[in-house]
Amino acid sequence: MAILVGLLAGSYPAFIAANLQPVKILKGHLHTGGRNAPLRKILVTGQFCITIALLSATFVIARQMQFLQSKGLGFEKEGVVMLLSKEFVALVVLANFVAWPLAWYAMNRWLQGFAYRIDIGWMIFALAGGLALLIALATVSLQTIKAALANPVDSLRCE
What is the pLDDT of residues 53-93, one digit of tens each? Predict the structure, then answer.
C-alpha cells in the first residue's frame, strides 16, 4: 500500500512537470484548470487522507508497543484512546497554527494578481483545520480501539 501511494504521489507531479512550458509560464499565458481540475483536487484530497491515516497508524502502533511493554495488562480502553487522542489533537492544532499564516500570505499574494480580488476569511482556514482534525481523530480513534482490543501477547510476539 505504501509503495503504491509513493509511486502515485511521485508520478503524478512528474507527469505535470513534464508538460510545463516555461516560456508560456513566464509570459503569463498558461491556462490552468480545465478538465483535469476536479481530478487533481480529488487526488490531492485522497493523498492527504491516506497520508494522515498512515502517519497516525504508525504512531499508534509505536505507542501500542511502548504501552504494552511498560504497563501491566490491565488498562481501560477509554484511557488509551484519550491518551493518544490528546497527543494528536495537539500536533494537528500546532500544524494548523503554523500553516495558516503561511497559507494566508501565499494565497493573498497570489490573489493580488487578479483584477477582481476577494478577501480571504478565517472561516476557510478554520474549516480546513477542523476537517484535518476530524480526519486525524477518526483515524487515531479507530487505530487505537483496534489496538486496545488486540491481544497483547500477539502484539509482543510479532516484535
Answer: 888 778 877 877 777 666 555 566 677 777 777 877 888 88
What letter would DSSP give residue 119? Answer: P
User: Does residue 154 fall inside a structural domain?
Assistant: yes
Q: Left if phi > 0, otherwise alpha if psi is -120 to 50, otherwise beta: which for 4?
A: alpha
Residues of the chain with pLDDT under 50: none
Nearest 5 degrees, angle CA 92-CA 98-CA 100? 95
- Give the three-state DSSP class for 43: helix
Extract the C-alpha cell encoding 58: 504508525
Extract the C-alpha cell encoding 100.
495558516
pTM exceeds cut of 0.70: no
Closest by Cα among 66, 92, 33, 95 to 155: 66
Residue 50 lies in a domain: yes
Residue 12 lies in a domain: no
Cell of 65: 508497543
